[in-house]
Amino acid sequence: MSRAAIVVAAVACAACSGRMPVLDPGGPQAARIATYWWIVFWLSALILAAVVAFLLHTLAHRRVAAAPASLVEDTRVERRLALGVAAAVGLTALTLVVLLVTSVATGRALRSFGGTDPLTLEVTGYQWWWDVEYWDPVPSQRVRTANEIHIPVGRPVLVKTRSLDVIHSFWVPGLHGKKDNIPGHGSSLVLQADRAGTFIGRCAEFCGVQHAHMQLLVIADQPEVFDAWLQAQRRSAVVPTDAFARHGFDLFMTGPCALCHTVLGTPAGGRRGPDLTHLASRRTLAAGTLPNTVGHLAGWIIDPQAQKPGAQMPGNAFGADDLSALLAFLGGLS
Amino acid sequence: MSRVAALACVMLALVACEREHRRFSEVAPASGRPTHVTPQPSPNPAEGNAWAIAQGKQLYEAYNCNGCHANGGGGMGPALMDATWLYGSEPQDVYTSIVEGRPNGMPAFGGRIPDVQVWQLVAYVRSMSGQTRFDVRPARSDHMRVKESEQARRPERPVTAAPSGRP
Lengths: 334, 167
Hints:
Chain A is of the alpha+beta class and 334 residues long.
């Protein structure tokens, strides 16, 4: 019995903190959602306690029904019972109305955030990774990355979500609720981080075999750190001068990589896979499936289907020397 | 009677398994970076598989085949859904066209597209004019339809023209 209680408590706590905190809000939007969650929780707890107390009271004071003295209804008893039922129905309706009003108020509040100068980015869901583009009126200043979003602390971020294959759902529990990405139907949300830190996001709508490996990171930094990051991301890649890495560069451009991946400043301009211009600066590979290390990257290039069966990236049978050269080139994409 | 029905059901189930089987980590015999045509096993492993042909259909757009051949009707490149096959209609012929390229504009994709995907493309290109089995041909598109689905098309009878003819 006590063991069961511990398990229940552990499950309950798992949602409060840890990797994907729902009840540890990182910004005003998540705080509104958490507040609403607590209202629903305490109201439900109150109702449960009242019902259980009523049942216990009834059990404790049960009366053995005597044979009715007469078949004539006792109007006083009937009226009292009717009043009780009416009061219970009224209270239930009132509770539902309170919850509805609070829910609508929370939804309206979430839409009212945004400010005058939000950072705008477009997030596109693909099977099974996220494409992220930082919008700027000057096309050359736009930044494209994948599976990792950097945002400045304290500034509202307008996230436009869309999908180009199946329905996905953008969900960063520490910052906002879920928002479905529906093909052909753009939608948006505004989120804001009030403290620096890393927030984990996931696809929250089943989208195929690798739905569980469709993660993204939202990294909130101080504004000056963020600006430095954005400036670095705007730089194009340079052709390596080192002969070994240059060989890797040639393999990338003449081999299968360039057909799907973009590296800015080079002939590679494929759009089917993630932009790799600053691959080495990211923390994870394959949408949070693997940490971004040389070993994992090598394994991923050779046989992605062993790590993430069904992913759109095919295996590539590079020889050891070619692979090392390719890794040297990719390692320079910081 | 019921025994026959049960047997029929089992047969049907087995047929469906093979049709939908997803061979994620399949390595084609000449895997990796094909730069020249190698003798290929016949038939094409992707030919009888609905998933592989659906992949081929996605790749057809991802690799910009539709840039020249449109949705099969042709444009800058020849049509792929009519009965005329300039370089042959057999899987091996289509494979050669993709890997080695052809005169007058078809680029050589050898070394750029992994072999497994080339075979998926071959199966899809053949399914456009109904050369593959009816039940494995795509029944829908990922976007607005431009023509009836591959499955709804009537199989063409391939005519191989002389390569010196129309480009």
